[in-house]
Amino acid sequence: MSFRALYIDQRSGRDADATHTVELRTVDDDALEPAEVEVEVEVEYSALNYKDGLALAGRPGVVRRTPIIPGIDLVGRVRASADPRFAPGDRVVLNGDGLGETRDGGLAERGAVRAEPLVAVPDAFTLHQAAAIGTAGFTAMLAVLALERGGVTPSSGDVLVTGAAGGVGSVAIAVLARLGYSVTASTGRGDTEADYLRALGAAAILNRADFAEPGRPLQKARWAGAVDVVGGVTLANVLAQTSQRGVVACCGLTGGSELPTTVMPFILRGVTLAGIDSVAAPRASRVEAWDRLARDLDPRLLEAMTSTIGLADAPAAAERILAGQIRGRTVVDVHR
Ligand SMILES: NC(=O)c1ccc[n+]([C@@H]2O[C@H](COP(=O)([O-])OP(=O)(O)OC[C@H]3O[C@@H](n4cnc5c(N)ncnc54)[C@H](OP(=O)(O)O)[C@@H]3O)[C@@H](O)[C@H]2O)c1
To answer: Are 174 and 301 in contact (CB under 8 A)?
Structure first.
């Protein structure tokens, strides 16, 4: 048997020596790395996350093996399992765990993954919906859980979501609004995406430019909590505007990886900066987050935030996600 897969072939080096190609190949069953195979999966869907955009566009820092099948999300049905927790036919989802970075990922019709981080798709979701949630939605839920653990409740005050029209932002808004939080969305696309963000549940919309210039170490306290995917000066301003005992979940770096802040929000307002790491999340966190997604995310909202493309379309879509042009989530139907 053979199957189709995208392959990235990437060699670092100085200028002319560096190469990067992305190719749709048809390969034999034994092409998948056998060493760590615990569960073989008939893949139905993957998704395009910001990190997949970086990998497919040849940006450094994601791909750590070559050649490699990209795709940090993998959704499908178990073909065979060496682990008693899974049986053929089970509906499963895997987010991160090195997929598309150090192990072959989900942009293929076949997958071979570790059992420990593999999660059963909740009954509430179709496989397509699980892929629509993907790493972005899983990360958004981890961020919401971090706010809850820090004691932020709907009665604590307004919560802010940055990068609102992107994948993590869209799911964070939908979940927080359904839980009863008053959500303010920060976006650079208010002119085109305001109706979309309101439909997800945003009560107010701000221009992301309001957070883009360096500000004072402590500013007017506005947020009981925040989910930030932008980082950089934006995150510094969010921290400076967070209220007493507020929690800011730090998820991403679309605006930069530096953090030009001071200790003031932490020592004068007791603000918590909660780091979110979806890739190496332990099994218990994965199961908890997917259980909570099944309870707290309205699957009907996924339709509004999701578009679906085929395997060969992924490289072009990668450029669009890096340019901040994609609304919500992009599912990749690997059989299309
Ligand atoms: N920690 C983790 O485990 C984890 C997991 C998933 C994702 N992430 C990270 O989270 C971030 C978002 O991922 P995603 O999949 O949601 O990506 P996405 O769908 O591309 O969304 C990112 C959003 O960030 C905003 N943005 C883009 N460029 C920006 C800039 N230069 N300045 C300010 N805002 C900008 C845009 O929102 P608007 O158009 O609304 O302004 C964009 O839609 C990425 O950095 C990703 O690597 C981390």
So the answer is: yes
